[in-house]
Amino acid sequence: MEPKLTHLCYCLLVFLPLLSQSAIANPSSSPNHSNNINFIVSSCRTTRYPTLCVKCLAAFASKIRCNENRLAQTGLAVTLVRVRSTTAYLAKLTKARRVKRREYLAVKDCVENLGDGLTMLAQSMREMKRVGRSGRGREEFLWRLSNVETWVSAALTDETTCLDGFDGKFMDGVVKMAIRRRVVHVARVTGNALALVNRFASRHKS
């Protein structure tokens, strides 16, 4: 297995169980649930798509617990899962017999871009955990935080590049619409995650 895939699988193994446990848990069992939800809603107001942000994170309120670092980590974890799902969907399209060559090449390039983005997101998740545990001084804390911002931004750029590949009229309208809908969604989720990371950073850089 390639090294970057190994790292990605590791991150999924670490974070997916946490997300699943939070999603399954009964929110009403916690007396602080309302405060946790209010914290998510308030934090999501800083994102470009606040309704989508809340929808993605509300199920994990008991895990986040009004903690800005855990909020950013969860946002990244949710983003990684959704980008991974979209990448798998596009990879299947490249194997469909009815896909024309130009369509195949565009989808293949998109899969590669999203794959690069997955690597950046996986790195960001690991680094964000280190930010939360950093005890080596402010300089290292800010350096790791800057890494996260850079890598998530790079993942968003990869997703935008993927969308650019579907400009023009060469692709079947139905296929193009299905792809764009999925990639636009993950780009918005990624943008929201980046906004939450930036929010965390701005509060700790000043």
TrEMBL record:
Q: Which SUPFAM superfamilies match?
A: Plant invertase/pectin methylesterase inhibitor (SSF101148)
Asked whether the keyword S-adenosyl-L-methionine is assigned, the reply is: no
This entry carries the following GO cellular component terms, namely: plant-type cell wall
Pectinesterase inhibitor domain residues are 35-196
Leader sequence range is 1-25
Spell out the molecular function terms from Gene Ontology: enzyme inhibitor activity; pectinesterase inhibitor activity
Q: Which UniProt keywords apply?
A: Signal
What SMART domains has UniProt attached to this entry?
A: PMEI
Q: Cite the Pfam families for this sequence.
A: PMEI
> InterPro entries annotated for this entry?
Invertase/methylesterase_inhib, Pectinesterase_inhib_dom, PME_Inhibitor
Q: Name one GO biological process term.
A: plant-type cell wall modification
Question: Is Transit peptide found in the keyword set?
Answer: no
Q: Identify the CDD domains for this entry.
A: PMEI-like_3
- Note the superkingdom of the native organism: Eukaryota
Q: Which family does it belong to?
A: Belongs to the PMEI family.
Name listed for the protein in its UniProt record:
Pectinesterase inhibitor domain-containing protein
The species is: Brassica campestris (Field mustard)
